[in-house]
């Protein structure tokens, strides 16, 4: 259909190219995998070829394939034509895949026409000639063993399959790693850990963080309670959380019994108008339901300065469930990376639609806008209700806060938000990531879905966020590095118990902390150099101090209570599941429209008050430091290309993509920064006083921007290394068997590879 | 008519008293007038930025004017005003207000609403006015206006029985279709002076000189000076040096409509060329022409780098073959040695028209939420865009990477051929990506080479079912937009520029897109009698420039032509929907940063001067990078 492959933009290598024909035997001896503390080599095989294209090519890399207790490492002397600016992860080499990021391991014997999906503790009756590793981050890597010894090949394949499915959480590498780091007392510094003091992220593991949050949001009638200290009341709630001031600890303990997971309703955030956002699990005891409901509501009402009503938002009834989201994700992966690029071109849009991923992204954003409307437009407190309050509520409450509170759009604020609404609120990261690969039914990319929603907001309002889409992508990739406490556990108690047990079993002497402290992902220095971390900073972000100037005059927004009261008089409160009703109404109407193609028939789509609120807001100029609502026409939601297509070579725009704009903006932002520093120096008089004046940036030399404006040269030349997948590179990371005529496709005869595990596993050959 | 007379004088008085020319123009562009009025003073960010130059007082005043007053252009006159008209807005419901019709525009306002609601559009965008149904019980008649810019408007209006007064919609009918009513188009009335004359933007000799022409292999010929070789071609043509003028006429006899292969673009280094023409008149019997074969051979020989010539036939092979029945066809590889024929599968104008009709159904007024993407897919609009871009990409790739000359044609060589040659040139030559270069490209490949704008758009013509209408130029602009999305720093112009071009493609305010060929334009004396769109654009180019633009040397663009990257141009097709806000434009933020940099540079310099004055020892070290210097990356 479209056989054009632009020949020109080939990758220019900035590294010295090995000129001699690659001899697999040469220099293979002294290849060693780089190991982290606590990492051990399980098994390895030499003379392995890593494929860089669908067919064998002279560019393929020769090296050693190593399986450790942490990663699949491919060590090579060869080099790929790679991006000059490619970022490097301190925990992983260029060709490494963390075992936790392995989705599926497929071994193939080409000659015998056999293939098998390998699970843990399985046998392999043929010696594989090829190994395909499908990764959770959408990468696919292919190794060939033409020259390797069959026995060690088999061993490595089985080891990879086995170690990527650990039987117990303690076998996740993070434990070994943290233990070793702890043993060596200077561990933190040795691993390039940031000293904890520089972390500007509130972790919400102590009452002072909650206190500060109460003060920041002006939630005067709310208090931090410590009934759950030592996880005495609820196993999945954090030790400290916030409740209405009118409820005594005694009441809370009494209430807790009736809630699912003994989860007492937990405060999330307060609007400046006094409305509060609260999340709550379902009430298990039907006899208590009414009574309890009333008491909780009245307590929340009491905590509202105007004692306004509490509205409930039933998430289970109006949002897709865990299984549906996972199914959408699997379908999306299918069309983005598994299906041959050209084949689904023609049906791309409808395939994308039938994956339902964007529909779900939209559903979450839409629901969040409705909650925002209740808080901001109706001036009411809102209670998010979900069966367990550990999944959908995490997404909705975080999105609502992102839309309402500019603090969370800063880097530190965003991290605190994830900490508060996901980690501390007890989102089951371990189960949802399916790190133990025990229960596929529990797996769900809910956090990625949230990041996608954030990306949609960011895509519509790029200047409102301090961080970039690269940051979001890297954050999501960090889920598959099983080292960070952030993504390793199901709740804070789980974290505390597991690390205590581990410490005991390994007889690690714990100091005052009484627990192993796993590094959290927010210590970015653990993974990236300071320079690479600059990729997280958006050059467009305007800080808090900037007033919004429109048409030359400073606008004060007419979002007065008066103008809203008119719209408020509609339904007094949104009943549960109102959205569901509305949806069916629209659908019915649209069916009628299809039957009547009269262009003059006025099509009146019923508008919910939230939609009217949203339309009204959209008609005003944006205040990036104020309320931010997404545009939710289906035409406004886009596929997050950087995340989903970054490993697809065919989809890469060389010297193009939004990074080109990012590059330009960064250079300018950097110039501005330099000028500001100069100004400060001039004003401060002596240069010695300058470092003190910038406490936020410890290193004066380190700019906030990744790209720096340098000395002006004669002619600007295109930054060749920039592509639409920057800072990632699909080169060498993806080898799909999409080319017809590959020996591979012969026996597959067009069958889709990504059938469910069982189907393939049954083909034990 | 007394009523209209008074309104007229009122309007003109107002306009003459306080009408900065810039402002009057802003209000004429239909881009966001519907919206922006609804948004009150929240004019488009682009317009707002242009206004920041003006003082704050002027601003306040102009925004007050914009709130609901009709501002007339020079020689625009109010024809009638009806005060009891209901606009049935698909988004906001029925709005009562007054409707004014001038010889240029239709202006509806409702001041009861807060913010005031205003609808302001040139009558030129209207393609059809129709009465809907019978008189209602309330004595109202409904009228529907189908517009060329992807919207339909519906009005209801009280019908006074027995009244001799004509309905205001009869006036709309009259002024929207001046050609059918033997009236002059407003472009001929409008005489706004601009500092620059846009008709001078394109000088063929200067453009060919820029390309290094003539050279030893190519010559500039005046053979078509009187348009007698080909009446739809420009007067100035570039042909192979060894083909004399007499032979051109014989080649013309073998090419449809006499559109002989002529040079569009030449590669500055490899001398590979893009040439364009119409289909050869092969017919069912496989006719041949020695002169035509020699001509193509000469084109190939002019490029020493390659011994091959690629002929890109834009059509699907079936259509090309079907053309043989009508005497046309395609080059056989037997007759043309060393030529390789490639079909690009782009469909004809009728398919494209139908596709746009479907697209309009899908996007206006409301988007069906549940099946958006599959509905979009069923219009095939993006698929057509993809095929056009893919064709252009293949051409550009052959020329740049293959160093091979290419010949591009379709049937007549004025629709698909224009799309392909101009897009390929846009990929190959950075000049065309500048604000002025793009104007040259449109003037050259579209206007001078006879894309039949009058027929394809149907300016002022009531016959809305005319089979000659087709959104060929819209597709081209859409393709350009797709490229600007993929290469945000490679174009000097912005999205607003593209939208402005499209708006004035229909508005008939400027003479640029009138008529079908260079010959017709000269006959009508358009450069003297009308204003060029480029006069307007170049007089306030800041509004249309993309500040992110960098002129990287020898940067050939290879867009990724895949559905994964093509998007529906929401900012154009869905702009009437109040549930969308024009995308936060990056360049707006960039401008703010630029201003900030300038301010800081000033401050730093001031301080340095102060320090230097105070200390009076050695001057302080060089401060930062000087203003305006090209920024360069270092790691």
Automatic annotation (TrEMBL), chain A:
Low complexity composition bias: residue spans: 684-698
Q: Give start and end of each Myotubularin phosphatase domain.
A: 204-644
CC per GO annotation? cytoplasm; membrane
GO biological-process terms attached to the record: phosphatidylinositol dephosphorylation
In residue numbers, the region (Disordered) covers 680-710
Which Pfam family, an example, fits this chain?
Answer: 3-PAP
Q: Which family does it belong to?
A: Belongs to the protein-tyrosine phosphatase family. Non-receptor class myotubularin subfamily.
For this entry, the protein name equals: Myotubularin related protein 10
From TrEMBL, chain B:
So what does this thing catalyse?
Answer: a 1,2-diacyl-sn-glycero-3-phospho-(1D-myo-inositol-3-phosphate) + H2O = a 1,2-diacyl-sn-glycero-3-phospho-(1D-myo-inositol) + phosphate; 1,2-dioctanoyl-sn-glycero-3-phospho-(1-D-myo-inositol-3-phosphate) + H2O = 1,2-dioctanoyl-sn-glycero-3-phospho-(1D-myo-inositol) + phosphate; 1,2-dioctanoyl-sn-glycero-3-phospho-(1D-myo-inositol-3,5-bisphosphate) + H2O = 1,2-dioctanoyl-sn-glycero-3-phospho-(1D-myo-inositol-5-phosphate) + phosphate; a 1,2-diacyl-sn-glycero-3-phospho-(1D-myo-inositol-3,5-bisphosphate) + H2O = a 1,2-diacyl-sn-glycero-3-phospho-(1D-myo-inositol-5-phosphate) + phosphate
Record key words, sorted: Coiled coil, Cytoplasm, Endosome, Hydrolase, Lipid metabolism, Membrane
Per the record, the coiled-coil ranges are: none
List the membrane topology term(s).
Peripheral membrane protein
Pfam families annotated for this entry? GRAM, Myotub-related
Q: Where does substrate bind?
A: 323-326, 348-349, 410-416
Write out the catalytic residues in the record.
410
Assigned EC number: 3.1.3.95
Chief site of localization: cytoplasm
Cross-referenced PANTHER family: MYOTUBULARIN-RELATED (PTHR10807), MYOTUBULARIN-RELATED PROTEIN 2 (PTHR10807:SF42)
Describe the function of this protein.
Regulates the level of these phosphoinositides critical for various biological processes including autophagy initiation and autophagosome maturation.
This protein is called: Phosphatidylinositol-3,5-bisphosphate 3-phosphatase MTMR2
């Amino acid at each position: 259909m479209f056989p054009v492959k632009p020949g020109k933009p080939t990758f220019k290598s900035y590294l010295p190219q090995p000129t001699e024909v690659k001899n697999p035997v040469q220099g293979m001896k002294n290849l060693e995998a780089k190991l982290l503390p606590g990492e051990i080599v399980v098994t390895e095989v030499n003379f392995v070829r890593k494929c860089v294209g669908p067919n064998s090519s002279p560019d393929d890399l020769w090296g050693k394939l190593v399986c450790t207790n942490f990663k699949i490492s491919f060590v090579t002397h060869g080099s790929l034509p790679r991006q000059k600016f490619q970022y490097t992860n301190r925990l992983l080499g260029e060709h490494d895949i963390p075992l936790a990021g392995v989705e599926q391991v497929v071994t193939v014997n080409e000659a015998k026409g056999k293939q098998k999906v390998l699970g843990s503790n399985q046998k392999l009756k043929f010696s594989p000639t090829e190994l395909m590793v499908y990764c959770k981050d959408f990468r696919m890597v292919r190794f060939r063993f033409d020259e390797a010894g069959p026995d060690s090949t088999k061993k490595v394949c089985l080891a990879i399959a086995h170690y990527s499915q650990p039987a117990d959480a303690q076998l996740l590498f993070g434990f070994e790693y943290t233990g070793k780091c702890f043993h060596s007392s200077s561990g933190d510094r040795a691993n390039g850990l940031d000293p904890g003091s520089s972390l500007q992220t509130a972790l919400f593991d102590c009452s002072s963080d909650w206190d500060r949050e109460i003060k920041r949001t002006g939630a005067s009638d709310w208090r931090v309670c410590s009934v759950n200290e030592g996880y005495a009341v609820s196993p999945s709630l954090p030790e400290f959380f916030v409740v209405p001031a009118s409820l005594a600890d005694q009441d809370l303990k009494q209430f807790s019994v009736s809630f699912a997971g003994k989860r007492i309703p937990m405060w999330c955030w307060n609007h400046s108008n006094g409305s509060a956002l609260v999340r709550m699990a379902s009430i298990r005891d039907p006899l208590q339901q009414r009574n309890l409901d009333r008491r909780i509501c009245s307590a929340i009402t009491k905590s509202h300065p105007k004692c306004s009503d509490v509205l409930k938002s039933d998430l289970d009834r109006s949002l897709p469930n865990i299984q549906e989201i996972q199914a959408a994700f699997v379908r999306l992966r299918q069309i983005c990376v598994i299906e041959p690029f050209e084949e689904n071109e023609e049906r791309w849009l409808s395939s994308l639609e039938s994956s339902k991923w964007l529909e779900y992204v939209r559903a979450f954003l839409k629901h969040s806008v409705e909650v925002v409307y209740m808080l901001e437009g109706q001036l009411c407190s809102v209670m998010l209700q979900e069966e367990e309050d550990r999944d959908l509520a995490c997404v909705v409450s975080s999105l609502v806060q992102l839309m309402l509170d500019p603090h969370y759009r800063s880097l530190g604020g965003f991290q605190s938000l994830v900490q508060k609404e996901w980690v501390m609120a007890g989102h089951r990261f371990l189960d949802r990531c399916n790190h133990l690969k025990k229960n596929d039914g529990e797996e769900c990319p809910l956090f990625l879905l949230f990041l996608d929603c954030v990306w949609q907001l960011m895509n519509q309002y790029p200047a409102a966020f301090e961080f970039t889409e690269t940051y979001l992508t890297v954050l999501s990739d960090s889920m598959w590095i099983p080292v960070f406490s952030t993504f390793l556990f199901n709740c804070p108690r789980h974290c505390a118990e597991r690390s205590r047990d581990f410490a005991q079993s390994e007889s690690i002497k714990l100091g005052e902390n009484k627990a192993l402290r796993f590094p959290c992902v927010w210590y970015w220095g653990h993974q990236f150099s300071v320079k690479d971390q600059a990729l997280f900073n958006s050059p467009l972000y305007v800080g808090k101090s900037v007033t919004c100037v429109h048409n030359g005059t400073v606008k004060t927004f007419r979002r007065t209570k008066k103008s809203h009261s008119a719209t408020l008089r509609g339904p007094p409160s949104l009943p549960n599941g109102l959205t569901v009703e509305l949806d069916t109404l629209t659908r019915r109407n649209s069916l009628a429209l299809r039957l009547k193609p009269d262009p003059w028939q006025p099509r009146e789509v019923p508008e919910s008050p939230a939609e009217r609120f949203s339309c009204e807001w959209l008609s005003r100029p944006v205040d990036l430091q104020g309320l931010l609502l997404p545009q939710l026409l289906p035409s406004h939601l886009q596929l997050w290309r950087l995340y989903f297509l970054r490993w697809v070579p065919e989809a890469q725009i060389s010297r193009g993509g939004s990074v080109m704009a990012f590059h330009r903006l960064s250079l300018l932002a950097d110039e501005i920064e330099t000028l500001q520093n100069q100004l400060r120096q001039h004003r401060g008089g002596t240069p010695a006083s300058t470092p003190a004046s910038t406490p936020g940036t410890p290193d004066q030399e380190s700019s906030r921007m990744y790209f720096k404006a340098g000395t002006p040269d004669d002619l600007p030349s295109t930054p060749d290394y920039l592509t639409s997948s920057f800072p990632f590179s699909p080169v060498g990371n993806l080898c799909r068997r999409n080319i017809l005529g590959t020996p591979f496709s012969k026996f597959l005869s067009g069958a889709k590879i990504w059938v469910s595990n069982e189907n393939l596993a049954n083909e034990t050959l | 008519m007394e009523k209209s007379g008074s309104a007229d004088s009122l309007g003109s008085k107002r306009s003459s008293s306080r009408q900065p020319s810039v402002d009057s123009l802003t209000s004429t562009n239909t881009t966001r007038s519907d919206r922006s009025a609804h948004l009150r003073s929240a004019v488009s960010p682009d317009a707002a930025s242009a206004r920041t130059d003006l003082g704050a007082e002027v601003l306040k005043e102009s925004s007050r004017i914009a709130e609901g007053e009709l501002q007339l252009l020079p020689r625009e006159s109010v024809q009638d005003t009806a005060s009891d008209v209901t606009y049935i807005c698909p988004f906001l419901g029925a709005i009562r207000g007054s409707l004014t019709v001038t010889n240029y525009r239709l202006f509806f306002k409702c001041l009861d609403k807060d913010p005031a609601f205003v609808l302001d559009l040139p009558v030129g965008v209207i393609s059809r006015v129709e009465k809907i149904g019978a008189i209602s019980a309330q004595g109202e008649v409904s009228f529907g206006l189908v517009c060329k810019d992807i919207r339909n408007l519906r009005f209801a209006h009280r019908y006074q029985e027995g009244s001799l007064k004509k309905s205001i919609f009869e006036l709309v009918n009259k002024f929207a279709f001046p050609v059918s009513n033997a009236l002059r188009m407003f472009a001929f009335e409008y005489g706004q002076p601009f500092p620059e004359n846009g008709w001078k933007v394109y000088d063929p000799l200067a453009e060919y000189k820029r390309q290094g022409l003539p050279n030893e292999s190519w010559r500039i010929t005046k053979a078509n000076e009187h348009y007698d070789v080909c009446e739809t071609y420009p007067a100035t043509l570039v042909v192979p040096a060894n083909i004399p003028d007499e032979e051109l006429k014989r080649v013309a006899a073998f090419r449809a409509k006499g559109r002989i292969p002529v040079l569009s673009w030449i590669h500055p280094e490899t001398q590979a060329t893009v040439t364009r023409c119409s289909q050869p008149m092969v017919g069912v019997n496989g006719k041949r022409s020695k002169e035509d074969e020699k001509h193509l051979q000469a084109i190939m020989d002019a490029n020493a780098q390659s011994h091959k010539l690629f002929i890109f036939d834009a059509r699907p092979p079936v259509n090309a073959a079907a053309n043989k029945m009508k005497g046309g066809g395609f080059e056989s590889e037997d007759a043309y040695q060393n030529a390789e024929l490639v079909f690009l599968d782009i469909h004809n104008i009728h398919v494209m028209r139908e596709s746009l009709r479907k697209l309009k159904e899908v996007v206006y007024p409301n988007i069906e939420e549940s099946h958006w993407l599959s509905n979009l897919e069923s219009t095939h609009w993006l698929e057509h865009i993809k095929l056009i871009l893919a064709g252009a990409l293949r051409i550009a790739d052959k020329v740049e990477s293959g160093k091979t000359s290419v010949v591009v044609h379709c049937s007549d060589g004025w629709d698909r051929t224009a799309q392909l040659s101009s897009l390929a040139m846009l990929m190959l030559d950075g000049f065309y990506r500048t604000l002025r270069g793009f104007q040259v490209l449109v003037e050259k490949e579209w206007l001078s080479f006879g894309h039949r704008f009058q027929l394809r758009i149907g300016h002022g013509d009531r016959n809305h079912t005319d089979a000659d209408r087709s959104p060929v130029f819209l597709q081209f602009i859409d393709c350009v937009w797709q490229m600007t999305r993929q290469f945000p720093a490679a174009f000097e112009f912005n999205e607003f520029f593209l939208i402005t071009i499209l708006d004035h493609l229909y508005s008939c305010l400027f003479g640029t897109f009138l008529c079908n060929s260079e010959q017709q334009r000269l006959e009508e004396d358009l450069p003297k009698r009308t204003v060029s769109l480029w006069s307007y654009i170049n007089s306030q180019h800041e509004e249309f420039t993309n500040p992110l633009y960098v002129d990287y040397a020898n940067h050939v663009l290879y867009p990724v032509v895949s559905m994964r990257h093509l998007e529906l141009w929401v900012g154009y097709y869905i702009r009437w929907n109040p549930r969308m806000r024009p995308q936060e434009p990056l360049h707006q933020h960039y401008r703010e940063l630029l201003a900030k940099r300038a301010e800081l540079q000033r401050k730093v310099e001031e301080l340095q001067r102060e320090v230097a004055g105070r200390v009076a020892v050695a001057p302080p070290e060089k401060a930062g990078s000087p203003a305006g210097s090209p920024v360069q990356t270092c790691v």
